[in-house]
Amino acid sequence: MTKDVYHTGTQAVQLEHLALSRTGLSQDVPITGGQTYKLSVWVKTKDVNSGIGVFVRTQFFKSIKGLDGKTQDDKIGSGPSTEELTGTQDWMKREVILSAPEEAKYIRLEPFFETGTGTVWFDDISLVKWNSVTGLALDQTNVTLEKLQTAVLTAKVTPENVSGLSLQWRVDNKDVVQVEAQGPLAVLTGLKPGKAIVTVMTDDGTFAATSEITVKEASIPGDLTNDGKITVGDLAMAAAHFGKDTNSPDWETVKAADVNGDHKIDRSDLMWFTERIFP
After folding, report:
1. Helices (H), the chain
2. What DSSP designation does 248 have?
3. How do residues 69-79 score in pLDDT, each as one tens digit?
4. 3-state secondary structure 38-59
5. Is the pLDDT of residue 68 over 90?
6. How far is CA 129 from the centre of its chain?
7. 34-64 confidence digits (pLDDT tens)
8. Which domains does the chain have, with CATH numbers?
9. Cα dist. 41→31, 70, 132, 169 in Å?
10. CA angle 240, 243, 246 (to 5 degrees)
């Protein structure tokens, strides 16, 4: 313990490695099996040089030697760990949601400095019952739009029946895509060619999910050669697939030649190309 550096109160746990070392501390805490918990910790680092870094890891137990009259540990398995830190970082909060196995009676919290050198401080470690969000995802992680085209992103929250939940939506490039959000839904509109990342997160920032948005120039119907105009080359490509319809095995590849949308490539489609090439 040190009184020289702390986040709140008057002291914090300090681990200092002057040479290559590996250190872990532990605290065993009684828990209720089947319950979800939130583990929070504040971490500060100085010159941490480690392949993995510093973090708090967890383990679940049915029994622990010396507690409840038990003579040996009965470990169920490892739980999640907080996100690792390396380098020099000011106080940062790390949180993780964990669900205790039904048979678990204890959780072991382990502030850990994986093999390396430097100094780390841990403070304000807390474990509280959690009855809110345990997961957040988007229904699409990649979306491709044409300019002025729209699409909808849907946030999927676990569990589904969380009450009073508020979500925040953000986009890192407002020139590329417009985001109009309400609750778990966001309507995207492509503005100009480029890429953007859309993020949805819970109000407290504990959970977040992202989707990469790609906006392309609007395509020209019938431009099968993708050269920005209708030419004899497009007519030739359509003619090569004359007679194909939705029953054709390569329909998804060739259906762009069905310019009138009647689910087949026939004479009317070829006439459409001819009228635009030879008006």
Report:
1. 232-240, 251-254, 267-277
2. S
3. 888 999 999 99
4. EEEEEEEEEEEEECCCEEEEEE
5. no
6. 24
7. 999 999 999 999 999 999 999 999 999 999 9
8. 13-129 (2.60.120.260), 135-216 (2.60.40.1080), 232-277 (no CATH)
9. 18, 30, 19, 26
10. 110
